[in-house]
Amino acid sequence: MKRKMPVPAGFAAFTAFALFTVASHAQTKAEKHACPANAPFLNADAVKKAGVELPVFKRYCYTDKSGSYALVLSEKQDLPFADETLSSVIQATLFRVGGDNVLTRQWSIRDFAGKEDAGINFRSKLFEFADLDADGLIEPILVYRFFAPDDKDGFDSDDFSGGIKIIAFHQGRKVVVHAITGILDGQRSTRANADFFALPKPVRQHLVRKMAAMYSAGQFGFDNSNGFMPKKARAR
């Protein structure tokens, strides 16, 4: 029988605050950064010219001390199911918007559903755009999920099924947290790349609180055996 492990002692108030921040406010905070529908620099021709190949479904804009930016989310949306259409490929691309509305690519991530996955998609309601260490620069935080197939030619959206990635960018470095869940404790793992452990403490703590909040809200069954702190990713 599946059971949700309790949040570790001393973590309750910590998680309650995170839950309030992520589950109650993250949706509206992310959508406040939606680009204007008529933004000339993000029309279909401009985006195609900038090299975005997959169908665009969301666009976010923000400005910090380094300039103005547009984040373009793309999903192939080629895996239809009764409840939702998933994708075999997703892509997110951040562009700097020049004074002449020219888009200059800053970074791009592209990921694929594995052979054992039913599909993949962005969980945009869990995105964040915030200056977490008061350096005047926005740290975009992206979340996307890998769904496991069920036994009825569909996919399983239970919070203790499949995998998830949290991607954050800090001063040009890509932070990757990759979590796999399961019904049993031993099936769950959360690992992060070296850039996660090099983050300033406020940013690292924010990501840990985010995972705790998602766990408490039933959004994903993270391994909480170490207070939601990821382990180091294995060397390839």
Question: How much is the radius of gyration in Å?
Answer: 18 Å
Sketch the major β-sheet: 8 strands, mixed
**Count of DSSP strands:** 14
Shape from CA axes? globular
Helicity, in percent? 10-25%
How does this model look, in words?
The protein has 236 residues and is α+β, with helices and mostly antiparallel strands. The chain has one domain (12-232). Helices cover 19% and strands 35% of the residues. The protein is built from four helices and 14 strands. The protein has helices at residues 12-31, 44-49, 194-197, 201-216, and strands at residues 56-64, 67-75, 79-80, 85-86, 89-97, 103-112, 119-122, 128-130, 139-149, 155-156, 163-170, 173-180, 189-192, 231-232. Strands 7, 8, 9, 10, 11, 12, 13 and 14 form an eight-stranded mixed beta sheet that branches. A hairpin with a 5-residue loop joins strand 9 and strand 10 (155-156). Helix 1 packs across helix 4. It is globular, with a radius of gyration of 18 Å.
Write the layout of secondary structure elements.
Layout: H1 12-31, H2 44-49, E1 56-64, E2 67-75, E3 79-80, E4 85-86, E5 89-97, E6 103-112, E7 119-122, E8 128-130, E9 139-149, E10 155-156, E11 163-170, E12 173-180, E13 189-192, H3 194-197, H4 201-216, E14 231-232
Parallel strand pairs: 13-14
Antiparallel strand pairs: 1-2, 2-5, 3-4, 5-6, 7-9, 8-9, 9-10, 9-11, 11-12, 12-13
